[in-house]
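Re-run requested by the PI after the first attempt was lost when the workstation crashed. Everything re-entered from the original request form. Ligand of interest: 6-diazenyl-5-OXO-L-norleucine.
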Amino acid sequence: MNKNYSLRITTVLSLFIFLLYSGCKSGVTHDPKKLGLTADNAIVVSARAEASKIGIEILKKGGNAFDAMIATDMALNVTFPFAGSIGGGGFLVYRKANGETGTLDYREKAPMAAMHDMYLDENGEPIDSLSREGALAVGVPGSIAGMFAVHKKLGSLPMATILQPVIDLAKQGYVVTENQKNRFENYSDLFRKINEKEIMYSSPFTANDTIKNPQLAQTLERILKNGKEEFYGGETGQKLIALLSEHGGIMTIEDLQSYEAQWRDPVVFNYKDLRVISMAPPSSGGVCLAQIMKMIEPYDLASYGHNSEKAIQVITEAERRAYADRSHYLGDPDFVDIPVNTLIGSDYLNGRMDNFSFEMATPSASLNHGDIPGYESMETTHYSIIDQFGNAIAVTTTLNGAYGSKLYAEELGFFLNNEMDDFSVKPGSPNMFGLIGAQANSIEPQKRMLSSMTPTLVEKDGKLWMSVGTPGGSTIITSVLQTILNVEEFGMSMQGAVNAPRFHHQWLPDVVTFEPNAFGKGLLKKLQKKGYQIRQENSVILGKVDGIRVLPDGRLEGGADWRGDDTAIGF
Ligand code: DON
């Protein structure tokens, strides 16, 4: 393993998460049982009030959760350029009112001209900036293909009814929040450097300024008129490719023309009386969540207590083992065979915790991925919607890093992703979240890069119970996990579960990250004595979870994360 690994990762991960959430408060105490927003019929919860409102208005017009999804997603393009953008991709997990479930994968893909070692220097070492900034970092965007696929299969209102409010919002503008102002300030130099000029978002803003985006309004108007092809080959696509070529990119019009969103079966598993429905590969979310929850199921977490020493140990050790498997086995299922059923099956998982003891941490260096006989290895945002008809969706969508590659398509009004960094650019070399990977997630033309996004729906006793998800790179899976456990095991409300302080472990680096000012010094000392390396510096906050749960009386409760500008709206 690379000697500088821990240092590099700690720096990169801390900087990323610090910049992501700088400006947020931490260590705020909340009543864990207090309900968040409640509503009789429907709730939309997302990273911005304007986007939640546009989604709710679509529902009030008689639209369903899928119509509201498209409206909310596109409104996030306008109001949350940090992560929500048609320059990226994402995943939808849905459960229709009749109980039918499914997922849509509109993850970005490597361009056809991508090569295995395209981010390595002449000594075979990764040049991190190439996979993270500028045109070479950009994967073929999937969001518009995703929206049209959802509309065709599950939508009920005309696209014009859905998109017009978003186009109006882009023209009229949205109000800059304090968090947003801070982020624009943090990134303005990088915007200038990557774009080699001033862009709209590099100018100084103050909170309460209004930002209009007429270019994005025009792009959406053209998409409305010409359909999906406008983005994947029409004027918008041509302009996109011209911009990327100008900046040294390798994506071609054929890459756009051949992009298709994929309907995939979800990963489904039981945890006690819950049935969890989550995203399958190319996201690692569902598989890792299943592995962790199955590994901790035999332990009586509720009796240990929320964020108690024993609960933290069990969860951390299960996370360690799941992330070790993630880095070895998981990748794009269209390119690699993934033994999903074995990985989440009891036979395999029962043995995985055999070497765990409450006395001592299992060092990650002593632990590898599990052996499966016969197997040959060869800035994000989440929103949840439950509608008045009982349909539920969980959607996580991303540009990867904050503002993606920072490359801004000025004429089109959006940022482009840097999703190529989610590939394992070299076996054992960490990506920006410190995740390492192997052959299964190596770069190949037209392959999808492995994701951690974990949009998840949960049933209790056969009925819809929760929709949940979050941004946060590698911490997504563990934040979703803790939010579900907070309600199921520790009796919190949806809002209380979202508010509660979180911790995270991902096998390598061998450190457990704790949200600052929220865990007692005595507790952390005890864990340290058992061999757990603790990290709490740099205002690290894990995830920005949004969720909705169905209350026992059938009403809905929203949980919107106080760590951002997230807002639940309902009726
Ligand atoms: O797909 C993934 O796992 C990453 N691209 C997600 C990035 C992310 O969550 C950044 N936002 N906080």
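Saved to the shared folder this time. The mean pLDDT is 93.
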